[in-house]
């Protein structure tokens, strides 16, 4: 497994990890590895104070560097590595409001609180509000499904729902479109969730298409191949299940990716989809930095069965790829056989709005000149 180094803001970090494939084993969230490390950077000292992440006079960058240093030492000793430690080897630091899952659990609790307050001010301002219509529609769908309706009766209810939504000026009423596409499929939910492709197009695609499909500038593909801007020999490892991108005359920029596992599905290798997602987001972010996009942000979606998590990554500070979890929610609650499209639609719409703000900010003649001159 090769993890490529970063070259941003004058900092060059060569990293090379070779894994002994015949001795790999892993258990749940902790994966056992045998590593041979060479040419890696042990010095985590940042070059300038202005590039450090400081919150309330607390040097968060220094704490992250210490965390990574420990991860490097554990890898050198061929010790077990958790997902967040694996990501830290590549200078990716995962932060979540859930302290038990965030790397900030290795810091003091006050620092974790300061970090989350800092991130909320940056990322959580544009989240659309929960609307009454969406909550009512989801409850109505749940009640209707409990009565074992026919496919036709369910579809007719969805048509009436969509008609009501079309008369509304509220853009968040896209929830009606999600329910229109998902609710009838819940009649045979067990069968549709057995195969990954069927699961993706039955329960995931209606949500992300309703959210991202409304913006003409975004183009989307399922299983579209490797991310652009990667070396050919590594494209197999970084092949997302779904991608959002924008395209000029000659260049393409990937802005969001999705990794998916069907219910009861499992990883086919030692690297989890969560780790793969983090590395894919770093690859996309590096491409944006290379062509001169200022303050770039990329997004990621992780679907594990009917559980969905959304992420944002930036490079605001030196050698610090902040991978922030925005939310985790259920696409469908199977226990009640009721769709929860409201929450899913809102959080995914936040990703769409975030990308839209970034694209609008950089949608200038100069930006597209940079894109047209960028290597494909």
Give an overview of the whole structure.
The protein is an alpha+beta fold and 376 residues long. The protein folds into two domains: 6-121, no CATH class; 132-373, no CATH class. It is built from eleven helices and 18 strands. It has helices spanning 60-76, 83-89, 109-123, 132-146, 151-166, 175-182, 189-192, 196-212, 273-290, 341-362, 365-373; strands at 6-8, 11-13, 16-19, 25-27, 30-32, 35-38, 54-55, 58-59, 81-82, 92-95, 219-222, 242-247, 252-261, 297-304, 307-317, 320-330, 332-333, 338-339. Strands 10-16-15-14-13-12-11 form a seven-stranded mixed β-sheet, sandwiched between helices. Strands 4-5-9 form a three-stranded antiparallel β-sheet. A hairpin with a 2-residue loop joins strand 1 and strand 2. Helix 6 packs antiparallel against helix 8 (196-212). The radius of gyration is 22 Å and the shape is globular. The two termini are 24 Å apart. The model is unreliable at 1-43, 232-236, 334-339 and 363-376 (pLDDT under 50).
């Amino acid at each position: 497994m090769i993890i490529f180094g970063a070259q941003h803001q004058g900092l060059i970090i060569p990293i090379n990890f070779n894994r002994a494939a015949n001795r790999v084993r892993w258990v749940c969230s902790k994966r056992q590895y045998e590593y041979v490390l060479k040419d890696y950077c042990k010095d985590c000292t940042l070059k300038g104070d202005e590039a450090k992440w400081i919150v309330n006079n607390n040097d968060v960058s220094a704490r992250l560097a210490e965390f990574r240093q420990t991860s490097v030492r554990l890898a050198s000793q061929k010790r077990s590595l958790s997902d967040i430690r694996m990501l830290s080897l590549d200078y990716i630091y995962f932060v979540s409001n859930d302290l038990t899952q965030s790397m900030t659990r290795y810091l003091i609790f006050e620092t974790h609180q300061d970090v989350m307050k800092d991130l909320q001010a940056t990322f959580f301002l544009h989240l659309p509000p929960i609307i009454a219509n969406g909550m009512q529609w989801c409850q109505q769908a749940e009640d209707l499904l409990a009565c074992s309706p026919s496919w036709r009766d369910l579809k007719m209810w969805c048509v009436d729902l969509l008609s009501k939504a079309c008369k509304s000026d509220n853009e968040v009423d896209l929830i009606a479109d999600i329910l229109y596409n998902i609710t009838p499929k819940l009649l045979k939910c067990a069968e549709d969730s057995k195969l990954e492709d069927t699961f993706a197009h039955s329960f995931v695609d209606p949500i992300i298409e309703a959210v991202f499909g409304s913006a003409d500038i975004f183009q989307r593909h399922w299983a579209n191949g490797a991310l652009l801007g990667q070396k050919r020999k590594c494209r197999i490892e970084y092949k997302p299940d779904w991608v959002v991108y924008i395209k000029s005359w000659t260049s393409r920029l990937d802005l969001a990716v999705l990794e998916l596992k069907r219910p009861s599905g499992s990883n086919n290798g030692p690297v989890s989809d969560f780790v793969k997602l983090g590395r894919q987001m770093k690859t996309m972010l590096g491409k944006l930095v290379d062509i001169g996009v200022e303050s770039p942000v990329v997004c990621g979606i992780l679907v594990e069965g009917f559980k969905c998590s959304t992420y944002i990554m930036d490079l605001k500070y030196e050698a610090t790829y902040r991978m922030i979890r925005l939310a985790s929610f259920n696409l469908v609650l199977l226990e009640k056989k009721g769709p929860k499209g409201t929450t899913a639609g809102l959080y995914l719409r936040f990703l769409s709005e975030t990308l839209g703000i970034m694209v609008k900010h950089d949608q200038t003649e100069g930006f597209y000149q940079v894109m047209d001159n960028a290597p494909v």
